[in-house]
Amino acid sequence: MSNTLDNNRPNDRHENDSQRSVDRPSAIDADAEPPSSQPPSAADVSTIQVEVAIDSQLTSDVDVAAITRAVQAAAAHRGYSQGELGVRVTDDPTIHQINAKHLNHHYATDVISFGYSDTRPVIEGEMVVSIDTAQSRADEIGWSAEHELLLYVVHGTLHIAGMDDHDEADRSEMRAAEKIVMTQLGIAEIHRFSVEAQS
């Protein structure tokens, strides 16, 4: 199943595999930094374990704690407080390969999400995000690549948590959720750099 993070961003393609399958894609099996788990805030304590894997070939700094908070905040927004979610941060060539292997789409993309279980309050899944696409898009619209990457993480988590963006109503609900979560993370600029603002 294919979804686009931004229908007005032709170079940004989001992929979502909504199949609940035992044959997991092992998106997290990368040469990576150790996992990090940190609650989004003292008020919103989450027991969701977040494993962040950063591919060894990346040269950009990646804020593991910020990614962990983004996953937990997006999951909490959808009513999940327990479970395990993995995030692999990679580059365009690698996400292209994953996209081709698992979804038969032969191009790089921003985020690919794989949901395995979403029975509240427990959630399980994985996602892969491209730091190259985040950097390219951030340069294009003039905001932080870190914030763009976190938007992909939030978007992927919302997909794993059951949201979709196939039709206009679903897209509108997804965009609203993204803004709420990003604002909770202290990224108020989302209102200036959201999809609607760039249209």
From TrEMBL:
Biological process annotations from GO: rRNA processing
Domain of life: Bacteria
Enzyme Commission (EC) number: 3.1.-.-
InterPro entries (alphabetical): MetalPrtase_cat_dom_sf_prd, YbeY, YbeY_CS
Binding site for Zn(2+): H155, H159, D165
Cofactor note: Binds 1 zinc ion.
Main location: cytoplasm
Region Disordered, residue ranges: 1-45
Pfam short name (any one): YbeY
UniProt KW keywords: Cytoplasm, Endonuclease, Hydrolase, Metal-binding, Nuclease, Ribosome biogenesis, rRNA processing, Zinc
Entry's Gene Ontology molecular function annotations: metalloendopeptidase activity; RNA endonuclease activity; zinc ion binding
Cofactor(s) required for function per UniProt: Zn(2+)
Start-end of Low complexity biased regions: 33-45
UniProt-listed PANTHER family: ENDORIBONUCLEASE YBEY, CHLOROPLASTIC
Function: Single strand-specific metallo-endoribonuclease involved in late-stage 70S ribosome quality control and in maturation of the 3' terminus of the 16S rRNA.
Name used for this protein in its record: Endoribonuclease YbeY
Source organism: Rubripirellula lacrimiformis
